[in-house]
């Protein structure tokens, strides 16, 4: 039975003790600005505290109005603000937890007209140009950080985390890339660090010695003109001297060309930089970024890489992460797969944060899976994301559930997605569902299609249809040509494409297929050295920003990724992952072409018009990724027989494959029955 002894070791900070080595890292939830948001945050954090997290860090709260992420963003600037937060700290403490408030000044990343920075240099990911702070404003901002920490203490927090990484205000003072000042707050590294050190020093003076003050330090900026690791190690020593209790490591700016938290990033990919920091300072150091299993966390601690492990999104996915690991049942953990679809994409899109694999996250007061009073026999047809999510949630509530699928394995389209390079983590979700369905006694019946007569003879109290989708057929002359294949045949390995390929359809599936057929050798998401070479990360951390030239690896196949729309290919992909997919394919030489009209397929290849100009793509294979249709045959037959089954997932809406929507529909239906 797994034990993970280093994870459960308490950490004595002198004036207080953390009960284990796990930190729930900061995530902006969107609840900070939402109606009734503080009550919802209290429920969210209380459930994680009840899950035995050693220390929780909240989402970022601005120390002044200029530091807000949006014009109506949350601040900690008054006693009234502090009182609003007390519902959170009380809820956490009632569940024997500790919680720190992150103080975050967005700087030039802010999306409002009053954004500021050390210099008037626009961020490439922001349409707005910041105004350079003058010296009195710098002094006031430093005091605002210290005052926010003081109010956080009044609110009942056990500490604060000063956000000094990811390219936000403090980080932008540290880097020559964004600090072009010639006064005492810019120039050489000593003067560029003055802002950060003064914030730490004054904060410690304001809150006293018996209060946790974490500094989140960017050990790797991963941008041109960033700081060197040696500079950051020196800064770590100075922050320690200025009063930091703990240093948490941040990796990469939001404008970096290197992915840092997506599923395509290897687990603990940047731990080497954290290990260097731990050797340089005498206070506890936290490792972060793409640590999502107890095995990885335990190994980092055992190897002396860090003193604490920060896992943020893993606690969106499963608030009972620690309880399950400590019980020796890691297979029961609902593992974060790094997809970003319901967390960071929601945050950047102005939506409430949640989790694709756990839609109750941040909705604890809205979606209840309380025990039922009347137990029902429920039949579920379709074991894709929607069907599995419903079956598990219904069984957790106490219903008797039978789950059917014609396939021999669980997962549906999710089982296909795990085969895509960079999406190997999706197998963790299938492992979780497989384990939990068995734990809660769901009767899983695979390998046989269900008929209307099967349903009629089963005497179910409720029937749920989650039969998913069928790929849309190509309506084109020559669609029956031997060159034409469906994407499922390719991804399942029953058809092998030729050396030149045209992919019709550049949605998420088209990109997945392009990555699948152009992958050469092992996936970089599974190999840190390959990842560093591919994305241009200096493995020795000696260069400014930690970057080296990227290594392009053109694919052996010639691939055309085509779409009808005139917009940029891939524009509809995830906010935080779409650029990764586009960069991957560009590096492999995939030709991404918009404004395509399809004419026919014949022995010569695919006949098209590109921007109204006729041409022939002389390809060996045409892969069809032209959308999906709901698979409702069974549902329609049951309705025709006078039954009223429930319809969820792709069988209900198949405009685009959407596991986030499918899983949430399944859980919400289970909560309602």
Automatic annotation (TrEMBL):
Residues 380-639 form the FAD/NAD(P)-binding domain. SUPFAM superfamilies: FAD/NAD(P)-binding domain, FMN-linked oxidoreductases, Nucleotide-binding domain. Keywords: Flavoprotein, FMN, Iron, Iron-sulfur, Metal-binding, Oxidoreductase. GO terms for molecular function: 2,4-dienoyl-CoA reductase (NADPH) activity; FMN binding; iron-sulfur cluster binding; metal ion binding. Its cofactor is [4Fe-4S] cluster; FMN. The keyword Metal-binding applies. The keyword Metal-binding applies. It comes from the Bacteria. Residues 7-330 form the NADH:flavin oxidoreductase/NADH oxidase N-terminal domain. One of its GO terms (biological process) is fatty acid beta-oxidation, unsaturated, even number, reductase/isomerase pathway. In the N-terminal section; belongs to the NADH:flavin oxidoreductase/NADH oxidase family. This is 2,4-dienoyl-CoA reductase. It comes from Hoyosella subflava (strain DSM 45089 / JCM 17490 / NBRC 109087 / DQS3-9A1). The lineage of its organism: Bacteria, Bacillati, Actinomycetota, Actinomycetes, Mycobacteriales.
């Amino acid at each position: 039975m797994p034990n993970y002894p280093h994870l459960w070791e308490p950490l004595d900070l002198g004036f207080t003790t953390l009960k284990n080595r796990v930190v729930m890292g900061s995530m902006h939830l969107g609840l900070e600005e939402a109606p009734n948001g503080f009550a919802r945050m209290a429920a969210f954090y209380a459930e994680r505290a009840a899950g035995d997290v050693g220390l929780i860090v909240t989402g970022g709260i601005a120390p002044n109005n200029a530091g807000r992420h949006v014009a109506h963003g949350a601040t900690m600037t008054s006693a009234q603000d502090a009182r609003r937060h007390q519902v959170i700290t009380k809820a956490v403490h009632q569940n024997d937890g500790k919680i720190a408030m992150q103080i975050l000044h967005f700087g030039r990343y802010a999306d409002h007209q009053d954004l500021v920075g050390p210099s008037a240099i626009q961020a490439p990911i922001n349409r707005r140009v910041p105004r350079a702070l003058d010296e009195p404003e710098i002094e006031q901002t430093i005091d605002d950080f210290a005052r926010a920490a003081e109010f956080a203490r009044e609110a009942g927090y056990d500490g604060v985390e000063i956000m000094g990484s990811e390219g936000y205000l403090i980080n932008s003072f540290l880097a020559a890339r964004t600090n072009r000042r010639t006064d005492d707050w810019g120039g050489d590294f000593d003067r560029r660090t003055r802002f950060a050190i003064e914030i730490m020093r004054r904060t410690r003076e304001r809150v006293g010695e018996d209060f946790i003050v974490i500094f989140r330090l960017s050990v790797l900026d991963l941008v041109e003109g960033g700081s060197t690791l040696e500079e950051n190690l020196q800064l770590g020593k100075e922050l320690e001297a200025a009063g930091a209790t703990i240093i948490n490591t941040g990796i990469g700016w939001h404008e970096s060309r290197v992915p840092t938290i997506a599923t395509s990033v290897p687990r603990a990919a940047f731990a080497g930089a954290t290990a260097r920091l731990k050797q340089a300072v005498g206070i506890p150091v936290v490792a972060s970024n793409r640590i999502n299993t107890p095995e990885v966390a335990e190994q980092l601690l055992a190897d002396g890489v860090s003193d604490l492990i920060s896992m943020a999104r893993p606690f969106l996915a499963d608030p009972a992460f620690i309880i399950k690991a400590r019980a020796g049942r890691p297979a029961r953990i609902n593992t974060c797969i790094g997809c970003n679809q319901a967390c960071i994409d929601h945050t950047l899109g102005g939506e409430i944060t949640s989790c694709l694999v756990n839609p109750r996250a941040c909705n604890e007061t809205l979606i209840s899976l309380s025990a039922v009073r009347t137990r029902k026999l429920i039949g579920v047809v379709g074991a894709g994301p929607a069907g599995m999510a419903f079956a598990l949630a219904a069984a957790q509530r106490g219903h008797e559930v039978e789950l059917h699928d014609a396939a021999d394995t669980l997962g549906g389209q999710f089982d296909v997605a795990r085969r895509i390079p960079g999406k190997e983590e999706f197998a963790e979700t299938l492992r979780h569902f497989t384990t939990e369905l068995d734990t809660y006694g769901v009767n899983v019946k695979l390998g046989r299609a269900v008929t209307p007569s099967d349903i009629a003879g089963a005497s179910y109290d409720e029937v749920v249809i989650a039969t998913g989708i069928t790929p849309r057929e190509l309506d084109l002359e020559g669609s029956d040509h031997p060159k034409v294949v469906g994407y499922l045949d390719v991804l399942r390995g029953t058809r092998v494409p030729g050396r030149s390929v045209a992919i019709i359809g550049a949605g998420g599936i088209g990109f997945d297929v392009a990555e699948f057929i152009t992958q050469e050798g092992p996936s970089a998401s599974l190999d840190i050295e390959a990842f560093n070479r591919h994305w241009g990360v200096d493995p020795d951390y000696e260069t400014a920003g930690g970057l080296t030239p990227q290594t392009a690896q053109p694919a052996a196949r010639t691939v055309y990724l085509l779409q009808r729309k005139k917009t940029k290919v891939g524009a509809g992909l995830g906010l935080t992952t779409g650029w990764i997919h586009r960069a991957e394919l560009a590096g492999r030489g995939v030709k991404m072409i918009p404004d395509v009209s399809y004419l026919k397929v014949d022995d010569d290849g695919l006949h098209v018009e590109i921007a109204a100009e006729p041409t022939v793509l002389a390809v060996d294979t045409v892969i069809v990724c032209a959308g999906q249709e709901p698979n409702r045959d069974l549902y329609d037959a049951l309705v025709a027989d006078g039954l009223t089954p429930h319809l969820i997932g792709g069988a209900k809406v198949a405009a685009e494959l959407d596991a986030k929507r499918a899983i949430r529909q399944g859980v919400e239906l289970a909560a309602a029955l």
